Structure formats: structure tokens, C-alpha cells
Automatic annotation (TrEMBL):
It comes from Niveibacterium microcysteis. PANTHER family: ALKANE 1-MONOOXYGENASE 1. Residues 113-330 form the Fatty acid desaturase domain. Keywords: Cell inner membrane, Cell membrane, Iron, Membrane, Metal-binding, Monooxygenase, Oxidoreductase, Transmembrane, Transmembrane helix. It is a multi-pass membrane protein. InterPro entries: AlkB/XylM, FA_desaturase_dom. The chain crosses the membrane at residues 12-33, 39-57, 77-101, 107-128, 218-236, 242-261, 321-342. Belongs to the fatty acid desaturase type 1 family. AlkB subfamily. Its main location: membrane. The lineage of its organism: Bacteria, Pseudomonadati, Pseudomonadota, Betaproteobacteria, Rhodocyclales. This is Alkane 1-monooxygenase.
Length: 360
């Protein structure tokens, strides 16, 4: 166990690899005189190579014991890694918007670079932002808000914690995919309702605490996103603004597709009083594939995350009793984009889980 923990301590730094892939792809494309192909390198690695390596490297089901957990929590390396994402992603975003807005790439290359940057935005900016907003330290929560606002999704900080984590696996939750719902319908609901829900939740907080309108936290995060957009527009004109918006929309879409597969078809049992049973590890899909968990700070140990939302990534546990996904997130994102195949793979798993839980 100690050897595994030492290995994973440094392996979490693998999250930096996606950050260097977009510029590396352009360099390789220029070197081999195929710039438009090079722009797609990140997408090819994340959705092609990573699923293959997940299969080859296999699963990680090891959990730290109590003494090991204390040592992991005392080690400053782990929070430092997540905070490193703030300058690293911010630098890539500035470079990426500039690179897309230049005339050196054809249409296919620009689309590829946008898709690559959006992939990194979802995997790094939003994923690490998600890790940070759950923490108790104010600096970490602020860093998480910065990362989310950088892709125009600051409302996630409100809706995710006060909405999704409260209502997960119930009809009230807009971020829980219903059995039989395809990913495109789910994405439409996420894009159109989650920002509104964030606003309603924040307004309710202000009313409950009798606070003035200007204490609305969303004004800060949406204002920061607007500042990013205006800055790019002033610097690079319309191409810069379009590039920034495209990266943000793509990153948000990737996040919401991941949300789709994290809770697809899972429900909490209603109680006689009209409420729902407590959130447990049974209300999120677990995926133990090693490489993707390292790249995503163990996001795939999502069952434990929902059961213990403030638990830091380095001590998240594999939950063997939770419903299990058949592959890592990268492979399942592609599967979800083909609804008939997704339902063929996942609907029997949902049915088996519901039968095990005694749910209709």
C-alpha cells in the first residue's frame, strides 16, 4: 500500500500533460507540415490513447488506511498541485485564444485547436475548480471560482454545491440524467436551467440572510467571465472573443457530459414524508480505472465524493459496493454521444442496480 501511495503522490502531476498538448500539437504539426492535424493532438490523446491505456493499466481499488489518510492530509504537495492549475490554465487560455485567432490555421485546424483547448478546459479548469470549491479554505474556494469563471461557468460553484449535492438522484436535480434520457437532451437542460438555478439559489441565500443585492456571489464570477471576454475582444477583436466563447462552451459541454454519466439512471428512494433518503455511495457511478483517476484527481471515485463531499481527492476511496462503470470517463464520453450504444451498455446496469436496491 505504501508503495502505491508514493507512486500516486507524484503521478497526480500527470494532470499537467494535457496542458502542454495543444502547443505541442501545433509544434509537431508545423514540423511535419500538417498544422491542421497537429491541432487535434489533444483530442486524439484524451479520447484515443487514454482509453487504451486505461485498459492496459487496469484498475486501482486500493484505499488508504486511517494512518495513511492522516499522512496524506498533512502533506502540502496535494493542495499545491491543484492550486498550480490556476496559473497553468490561465496561461494556456491566453495562449490558446491568441493561437486560434491567428490566420496560420485552416478551418479544420481552428476547430481542432478549439476542441483541444475545450477538452483541457473541462479536464483541468472545471475539474480542478470542482475539487477546490468543495474545500473549507477560503483561498482554495476562491481559486476554484477563478477556474470556473475563466470558462464562463462561475454559476457551477453555487448550483453544484447547493443544488446538485443536495438533490442528486432525485427529480429535482437538473444534473442527474434520467433513465432513457439521451445526452443531447441532458445538455440542453444543463445549459438552459443550471445558470438560472444558480441565480435562484443565490437569491434565496441573500433573502434568508437579509443581505443586500450586491452581496450576490454570482456578480463576482459572472463579472470575471465578462472581464475575460472583454479583454480578449479588446486585444484580438471578434476572432479572440469567438475563440474564448468557443472554448468555454466546449469545456462546459464536456463537464456536463461527465455529469450525465456520473449519475445516469440512479435514484434515491422517496420516504413517506415526501423527502428522499440520504445521499450515499449508491447514488453515483464509480469507476476505478487508474490512469483517468490520476489525470482527474480521482474524480471517478465519484461515489465517495458524493457520500463525503468535502473529502480531499488524495483520500477518496474506491467504493466496491457502489454501481460500477464499465470503463473510464474518456471512453464513456464517446459512448454517450451515440445514445443507442449508450443505452445498450448502461440500461441493463441501471436495471440490475435498481433491482439490488429494491427500486422499481
Amino acid at each position: 500500500m505504501q508503495r502505491v501511495i508514493r507512486l500516486k503522490r507524484y503521478a497526480y502531476a500527470l494532470f499537467l500533460i494535457p496542458l502542454v498538448l495543444p502547443p505541442a500539437g501545433l509544434m509537431l504539426g508545423a514540423h511535419y507540415a500538417v498544422p491542421d492535424w497537429g491541432a487535434w493532438l489533444t483530442v486524439l490523446v484524451v479520447f484515443g490513447l487514454v482509453p487504451l491505456l486505461d485498459t492496459c493499466l487496469g484498475r486501482d481499488t486500493a484505499n488508504p488506511g486511517p494512518d495513511e489518510e492522516r499522512a496524506l492530509l498533512a502533506d502540502p504537495w496535494y493542495p499545491a498541485l491543484t492550486l498550480l492549475a490556476v496559473p497553468a490554465w490561465s496561461a494556456l487560455l491566453v495562449w490558446g485564444v491568441w493561437a486560434v485567432s491567428q490566420a496560420t490555421l485552416g478551418l479544420a485546424g481552428r476547430v481542432g485547436l478549439l476542441a483541444s483547448l475545450a477538452t483541457v478546459g473541462g479536464a483541468v479548469a472545471i475539474n480542478v475548480g470542482h475539487e477546490l470549491i468543495h474545500k473549507t479554505r477560503r483561498a482554495e474556494r476562491a481559486a476554484g471560482g477563478w477556474l470556473l469563471a475563466s470558462v464562463g461557468y462561475g454559476g457551477f460553484k453555487i448550483e453544484h454545491i447547493r443544488g446538485h449535492h443536495v438533490d442528486v438522484a432525485t427529480p429535482r436535480d437538473t444534473s442527474t440524467a434520467r433513465l432513457g434520457e439521451n445526452v443531447y437532451r441532458f445538455l440542453w437542460r444543463a445549459f438552459t436551467t443550471n445558470p438560472v438555478r444558480a441565480w435562484e439559489l443565490e437569491r434565496a441565500r441573500l433573502s434568508r440572510r437579509n443581505l443586500p443585492w450586491w452581496r450576490n456571489e454570482l456578480l463576482l464570477w459572472w463579472g470575471l467571465s465578462l472581464a475575460w471576454a472583454v479583454g480578449f475582444a479588446l486585444w484580438l477583436g471578434a476572432p479572440g472573443l469567438v475563440a474564448y466563447l468557443g472554448i468555454g462552451v466546449g469545456a462546459i459541454a464536456l463537464l456536463e457530459i461527465v455529469n450525465y454519466l456520473e449519475h445516469y439512471g440512479l435514484i434515491r428512494a422517496p420516504l413517506p414524508n415526501g423527502r428522499y433518503g440520504p445521499v450515499t455511495e449508491h447514488h453515483s457511478w464509480n469507476s476505478p480505472f487508474l490512469l483517468t483517476n490520476l489525470l482527474l484527481f480521482q474524480l471517478q471515485r465519484h461515489s465517495d465524493h458524493h457520500a463525503h463531499a468535502a473529502r480531499r481527492y488524495q483520500i477518496l476511496r474506491h467504493m466496491a459496493a457502489a454501481p460500477q462503470l464499465p470503463a473510464g470517463y474518456a471512453a464513456l464520453v464517446l459512448l454517450a454521444l451515440v445514445p443507442p450504444l449508450w443505452r445498450r451498455v448502461m440500461d441493463p446496469r441501471v436495471a440490475a442496480w435498481r433491482a439490488q436496491q429494491g427500486l422499481a
